[in-house]
Amino acid sequence: MNSLTDIDKRYLEKILEMSSGYVLDYSDATYGEFFSRHKIDIHGSRYQIYGTSKAKKMRAFWELEPDNVVAPVLDEMLASYEVDCELNGREAEKGILDKSKAIVARLGGKISGAEDADTEDVFLNQEFKIPNLQKLPVEPQIATIIEQRLSEARSALKAGAFLSVIFLCGSVLEGVLLGTAQSNPEKFNRASSSPKNKEGKVKPLHEWSLAQLIDTACEIDLLEVDVKKFSHGLRDFRNYIHPYEQLISGFFPDQHTAKVCFQVLKTALASLAGER
After folding, report:
1. Considering 79, 125, 166, 206, which has the largest number of Cβ atoms within 10 A of its Cβ?
2. Residue 24, by phi and psi: left (phi above 0), alpha (psi -120 to 50) or beta?
3. Rounded to an integer, what distance in angstroms lies between the CA atom of residue 205 and that of residue 227?
4. Residue 259 phi/psi, 5° resolution?
5. Residue 78 to residues 55, 74, 96, 139, 228: CA-CA distances in angstroms?
6. SS3 label, residue 132
7. pLDDT tens per residue, range 142-176
8. Structure pTM?
9. Is residue 214 within 8 Å of 98, Cβ to Cβ?
10. Residue 51 and residue 55: Cα distance in Å, rounded?
11. Contact at 8 Å (CB) between 154 and 178?
């Protein structure tokens, strides 16, 4: 047994691309070779309690082995994922990757779960108000739309439409960050985290993902590090707008999750408006 939680496993399943029964691009042979380096017979009957696909064997491995056995395996697999993205010109899912790395670090004893929880509690228990939206570095027409969506998000929260709250918060965050980037193109384009195409040129701002906007805004000091961290969490939840993603993950948010996402959005807006 190990300390992986259900939420931990959802992040790991996503980054390891396990929804179709596979694990990354491993074949049966390379999967066996990988685990054999860690002195594990992954194709043995011990790990077939849920089935014989590579993903099901991984789930059994998580179920049966302790933290100190699971951590080095996952650490190497995450490194393999990063290399695969680089060699194939793919964008790594930065937010989910960072969360997965933190999970593996905790398993390996490098991060205290209690300390991480304390950090989250401190952030979430702070009082943040929605700033003067006219101070946001976006066009006035966009500020009006943002105000309407925030009002709708409040109504959805009161009505118990928690998934709607998350989608509205995610859309506002992305819209404000894109507007901020368009108002500060030189700063965003010169940042080291700005996404590049195959020719090494910075992509047009409208092609940037929300993860890239978050990372770059933090790099150029428009968002604090804690806001960056929790904004990636909101981004991850926002991605469940796709019904199949929600089905695969079994994600059904409650009031707490919706309130957390609203808190993250308010904090990001305050930072971007210069009120934090």
Report:
1. 166
2. left
3. 21
4. -65, -40
5. 15, 6, 11, 40, 21
6. coil
7. 889 999 999 999 999 999 999 999 999 999 999 99
8. 0.58
9. no
10. 9
11. no
